[in-house]
Amino acid sequence: MAVVATTETGARPARAGRRPSVPGWVGTVPFFAYVAVFLLLPAGVVIVDALKNSSGGWQFSTITDLGNPLVRGYFIGSIKLCVITSVSGAVFGAILAYAVASGNPDGAVRRMYIAGSGVLAQSGGITLAFAFQALLGPVGLLFHAGWFYDFPWGISLIYAYFQIPLMVLVFMPAIDGLKVQWREASENLGASAWQYWRHVGGPLLAPAFLGSTLLLFANGLSAFATIEAWESQIAYTVPQQISVSLNSEVGLANINVADVLALGMMIMVVILMTGYALLQRRASRWLR
Amino acid sequence: MAKLVAAAKKEGTLNVIALPPTWANYGAIIKDFTAKYGIKVNSANPDGTSQQEVNAIKQENGTAAAPDVVDVGQAVALVNTNLFAPYEVSTWSSIPASQKQANGLWYEDYGGYMAVGYSSKFGTITSLSQLLSPKFKNAVALNGNPTSANAALNGVMMANLAEGGTAASIAKGVAFFHSLKEAGNFSPVSATGASIKAGTTPVVFNWDYLNLPSYVGVPNWKVFVPSNAVLGGYYAQAINKNAPHPAAARLWEEFLYSQAATGGQNLWLQGGARPVEEAAMTSNSTIDSAAAAKLPPVSGTPVFLTQAQNTAAATYLAANWAKAIG
User: Fold this and answer.
1) Is B277 in contact with B28 (CB distance < 8 Å)?
2) Among B137, B150, B326, whose Cβ lies nearest the Cβ of A250?
3) Strand ranges for chain B from DSSP E
């Protein structure tokens, strides 16, 4: 599952009508109703159930499972995977985005890249794992190496397949925001390419770059189907362990533990998204 | 019985869950039931787990979509008896006492033995230790994560018994899979019919009825049951006590436990699973002897895990499986 980047559009000035005007907030009702039903309600249920036991009574001790070394292991696994795939995805994606952006803005190459990235950023799950299985599995068409199944490097290779295109999509607007005049100005003042990137381009893009990296991190964190299809006989990440806690038929199912794990993920996402919002605010000063 | 059939026909529908059409002949069983009684069968989430079945009973309680009947692993049946309605099928006395809950809250239906299925390109396997040889690189797979899937837990337990462990402790089985992993022979890809056909998982630990050449459908597929590690396992039927179609649910059970040539017990047998009334049907000659002859031969005394042994194994796996294989 990928996070879809959204763009902000300015509010259209309201036209004065003769009919009695409907209060402005009415238009936001569908959005907030949607958020309430599909985000706030489930999040609330997760938080409340994380504090309960299987018979419905309050039990705050389940939450201490977050400190259990086994449970910590799933979070460490998730973090390792997300750090590797978000950093490598961000670096390669940014280079690719820059290469594409510096070409003809209306050219076929750019349009192809954007369209391709849009598709690939959403690819993932069983189909992607299967494609890699067919290509790089033990009886794959290309070749197979034992480390493809080693966590986290093997699966990182697969995640790159949707992380890099996502980076291209979310980072491209920032690169487009670099005004060509800034480059010309620094060149007129005798700056080398390195100096331009060190003192002008780099600092301008840094907040957007870091923000996009955080977005990639969150994207990798929630991915489940891909890794579950690639290596399903062991839980390496939190979403996989949530699945075990929900579905175990050997007596280890515990919905409240699943809720506690989900709560841990929610806390991580809140931290990440707060950081993302702060960085975006800083980046938007320059990229208007 | 005639009354039950009439009431069930009036309901017209039966909700079943987690019954893969290729598992133990369920595809044919559902089709035959509909053909015989004209009752429509809604089959939800065919690849679900036993736990998902009871989750569905709880979450869909009171709706018309709730499962009427479930087919669950023993561990799940034992701890969820408060969700089930007691019922004794007419062939109740043919079910061995140790394989049913005395009041009819659940009753085992079919089962089999853990077996190693493998592609004959590896030659003939006669002991599990052969699997550590380099020719089995990335080849050996379980059917899922053993902390989650019953068949996978039993696969590790089978290795445990073959390695000289006892049913009380699964440690030697985990150690065996650790050596497999060290040797580079463990495949983390879960074994499915598709992965076997694709050749991704050429060696599979699974119930024999999911591992038979006739089921797997690939040429040159062989099955091996280690003589010192005969591990049996049965699934159990139970009726949702708030079933939306209570009569159809009971009629379904009657159909499944019927000893007729076209009844559920023989249909399971034709799917390679061992029906729970096998012994009784052998002595009263209602069993499909041609289908029975096709089952892989098993020598040695079979082991059945008790609930305590199952729990001990699951607890050990929860703490040690990730360390051994990760």
Assistant:
1) no
2) B150
3) 13-17, 40-44, 69-73, 84-85, 107-119, 140-141, 203-207, 221-224, 231-240, 274-275, 303-304
**Residue B123 in tokens:** 């030659």
**pTM, 2 dp:** 0.85
**ipTM, 2 dp:** 0.84
**Can you tell me the distance from the alpha carbon of A76 to that of A68, in angstroms, rounded to the nearest whole number?**
12
Which residues of B fall within a CB distance of 8 Å from A243? 148
Which of B48, B58, B45 is closest to B84 using CA atoms? B58
Pairing relationship of beta strands B13-17 and B203-207 according to DSSP bridges: unpaired
**φ and ψ at residue B16, rounded to 5 degrees:** -115, 165
A91, A286, B71, B288 from A189: Cα distances, Å? 29, 21, 78, 93
User: Shortest Cα distance from A231 to chain B (angstroms)?
Assistant: 5
**Contact (Cβ atoms closer than 8 angstroms) between residue A73 and residue A79:** no
Q: How far apart are CA B326 and CA B323, in angstroms?
A: 5
pLDDT by residue for chain B (326 residues), tens only, comes to 899 999 999 999 999 999 988 889 999 999 999 999 999 999 999 988 899 999 999 999 999 999 999 999 888 998 899 999 999 999 999 999 989 999 999 999 999 999 999 999 999 999 999 999 999 988 999 999 999 999 999 999 999 999 999 999 999 999 999 999 999 999 888 888 888 888 888 999 999 988 888 778 888 899 888 878 999 999 999 999 999 999 999 999 999 999 999 999 999 999 999 999 999 999 999 999 999 998 887 788 889 998 899 999 999 999 999 989 87
Our CA-based measurement puts residue A245 at a distance from the nearest CA of chain B, in whole angstroms, of 8
Q: What are B221-267's pLDDT values in tens digits?
A: 998 888 789 999 999 999 999 999 999 999 999 999 999 999 999 99
Residue A13 has pLDDT above 70, yes or no: no
Contact B145 A149 (CB under 8 A): no
Distance CA A53, CA A71 (A): 18
CA atoms lying within 13 Å on the CB side of residue B45: 18
Contact assignment for B325 to A234 by CB distance below 8 Å = yes
Residue of B138, B153, B322 with shortest CB distance to A250: B153
Cα R_g (chain B), whole angstroms: 20
- Please indicate whether, in this complex, the C-beta atoms of B72 and A249 are within 8 angstroms of each other: yes
Q: Which has the closest alpha carbon to A205: A160, A173, A168, A166?
A: A173
Cβ of A158 under 8 Å from any chain B Cβ?
no
Structure tokens at A112: 């192809």
Q: Which amino acid is at B163?
A: E
DSSP B187-198: --SPP-HHHHHH
- Percent helix, strand, coil in chain A, to 5, is 70, 0, 25
CA atoms of B203 and B199, how far apart (whole Å):
9
Please count the other Cβ atoms lying within 10 Å of the Cβ belonging to residue B255. Answer: 23
Supply the DSSP string of B13-62, one letter for each residue: EEEEES--TTSTTHHHHHHHHHHHH--EEEEE-TT--HHHHHHHHHHTTT
